[in-house]
């Protein structure tokens, strides 16, 4: 699972016993040599799909890590790309490694639950970060995404089909989440990373509540499962082209 350049078991153990922020600061120099980095095949497939729906002017990579998704945005955005993450170590690696020749690229340290931007972006993407958010945090997270998007903007992220119940992958993810729950019950600070907590039914409902219209696009590069369903989809949550107009008493500013 890890290349020779990746972290040792001791380094992973130290990371796992740290906070999320400190853990990623420690892992940052070797993160791209771990299976936690989004595979290039997924990045390339998302880039191809976004090319078909773009172009976009300004893009934001939410929880950008070492900047793999920033490279995708640089290929589909014409003017500006921003990567945001709360790990200073990950951002240092991103600044060092991501040097696209296209639009202006910058990196900002911030928490995804309190983004320091106004409605300045046409596209927000995120790759592999949602396991760090508890289900109860999704409404606030999606509200933040909506707040930084312009009217008609799009929030896009890949979604891998969950493993079938009883399969090896199913039991591996279940075991990982169980270990994390035990760890967080016994150790502080917590390290939030749950692979099975990001359930599409809940996600779709919360996106709709935040004002998004949700579209699903199969990524054909990954084929289909035996039942015909796509192995990987691109979720594209869109905002209306114009802000909602208040009605009734609110329209005239009544309390």
TrEMBL record:
The record's GO molecular-function terms, alphabetically, read:
methyltransferase activity
List the coiled-coil residues: none
Q: Which residues form the Methyltransferase domain?
A: 60-153
Q: Which UniProt keywords apply?
A: Methyltransferase, Transferase
Q: Which InterPro entries match?
A: Methyltransf_25 (IPR041698), SAM-dependent_MTases_sf (IPR029063)
Per the UniProt record, one Pfam family is Methyltransf_25
The source organism is Streptomyces caelestis
Name recorded for this polypeptide: SAM-dependent methyltransferase
């Amino acid at each position: 699972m890890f290349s020779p350049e990746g972290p040792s078991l001791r380094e992973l153990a130290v990371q796992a016993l740290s906070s999320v922020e400190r853990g990623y600061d420690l892992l940052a120099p070797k993160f791209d040599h771990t299976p936690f980095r989004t595979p290039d095949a997924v990045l390339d497939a998302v880039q191809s799909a976004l090319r078909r729906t773009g172009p976009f002017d300004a893009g934001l990579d939410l929880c950008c890590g070492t900047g793999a998704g920033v490279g995708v945005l640089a290929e589909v955005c014409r003017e500006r790309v921003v990567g945001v993450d709360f790990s200073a170590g990950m951002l240092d690696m991103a600044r060092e490694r991501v040097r696209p020749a296209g639009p202006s690229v910058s990196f900002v340290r911030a928490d995804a639950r309190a983004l320091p931007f106004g409605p300045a972006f046409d596209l927000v993407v995120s790759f592999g970060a949602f396991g760090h958010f508890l289900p109860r945090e999704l409404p606030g997270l999606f509200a933040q995404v909506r707040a930084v998007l312009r009217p008609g903007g799009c929030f896009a992220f890949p979604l891998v089909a969950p493993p079938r119940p009883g399969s090896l992958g199913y039991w591996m993810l279940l075991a990982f989440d169980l270990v994390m729950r035990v760890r967080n019950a016994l150790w502080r600070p917590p390290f939030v990373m749950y692979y099975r907590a990001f359930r599409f039914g809940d996600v779709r409902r919360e996106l709709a509540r935040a004002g998004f219209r949700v579209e699903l696009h199969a990524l054909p590069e990954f084929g289909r499962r035996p039942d015909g369903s796509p192995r990987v989809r691109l979720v594209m949550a869109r905002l209306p082209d114009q802000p909602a107009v208040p009605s009734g008493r609110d329209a005239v500013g009544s309390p």
